[in-house]
Amino acid sequence: MTLHFSSVSLIEFVFWCALLLYVSHMARVFREKQIDIIGKWKTYFLFSGILLAIGIVSLVLPSRGLKLGLDFKGGTLLERGFYQQVSSEEIRQVISAAVPSLKDSLIQLENKPPEIGEKNAPQTLVLIRSQNLSQDEIKAADDALKAKYQRVDIRQSQTIGPTIGKELQNNAKSAANP
Q1: Which distant-in-sequence residues (6+ apart) come within 8 Å of 6 by Cβ?
Q2: 52 and 80 fall within a common domain
Q3: Measuring CA to CA, which residue among 68, 47, 72 is closest to residue 59?
Q4: N or C: the chain end with fewer CB closer than 10 Å?
């Protein structure tokens, strides 16, 4: 009976043996050493307070704060279905050539296999989130996509105004501060 080891399994074996030795060594060190947690409560309390303050400051700073989504800021959401595999960079090139303001839009892809019984279902769903677009800009983007990919399903086009976004923001703030 011969045993065959690959280099990966040998490396994993060495890693787990080293980890086991380290853990047993650390257990021995902590058993022999008495740590005074209660006596140093002020130090631990100060450390926790500093971490909490850093977290709160990072949320409050305008440059690093929470990034508000389309629902809060307002904008346009386009959902399109494609019958072949596409990449977000291809989509960005096509739509930004037609509508330059779409260059900085957020593009998300969802590749999905067709469900049972669906022969003509799109293979890739694309969500395009951008600033507010006019109907002419949406039509120009759709025309450019159809010219490049022939078959494009227009699933959904939504424009959320800044008024609704402000209202959602205020509702979220009031829910957080009862």
Answers
A1: none
A2: no
A3: 68
A4: N
